[in-house]
Give the backbone structure.
Amino acid sequence: APAVLGVAPGGVVDGRFWDVVERGDVAALAAELAVDPGVSLGEVLPALSSWRRQESVRSVVDGWRYGVMWKPVAGRLAAGVLGGCWLVVVRAGEAGGGWARGVVGMLAGCGVDVRVVELGAVGRGGVAEELRRAVGDGSVAGVFSLLAVGGDPELGLLGTAVLVQALGDVGVGGSLWVATRGGVSVGRSDGVVVPGQALVWGFGRVAALELPERWGGLVDLPESVDERALGRLAGVLAGAGGSGEDQVALRASGVF
């Protein structure tokens, strides 16, 4: 799950300056100070003083901001229990996709009554009608949405927003979990974040604040589906061993 980190003012500024000095890179130092490489030391000193003041102020401002760092989820993910009725929401024609089949099979293997909802349009009324047809007179323990995974990124964001609205219209009380793929990066070796998928994460964080009683969480899936990933997903949906994490990323090396 993501944690926030502050930036120590001064350290970044000093580190960058001394790195240039130690490398003896006159051109880089001149460019940093905005002076001609051939100027004398007497001319450099005022520029250096001005640069130091500006960079110190900038570093202090950066220290007021927050960055995201992902950490492994500790504890046993499989400690919770899945049960009841779950809706798996996918785009029309994608029920046979790898992740859709994998999630349905995983939930069914946990003893869950799984009902697949395929959505061809993103109209709020039409989505609500499809949900009513799937739910009937029963109750729903959870909803897992794959609408944002792959395909048109704008449709994924719009479809997710409409799904949240329609679930409220129908009165579905189960927790909604929204899946993405490439929505976040847990480290330098994790690849580039896909902007369309990141939009869904931004929306999901707002939905979590506004609808805490109906929100489950955000799950960023790995590229390929396998039994290990599905087992970890089951643990996340079952409550992550009581850790309460609602923003997780599944990777080959574990859950973050």
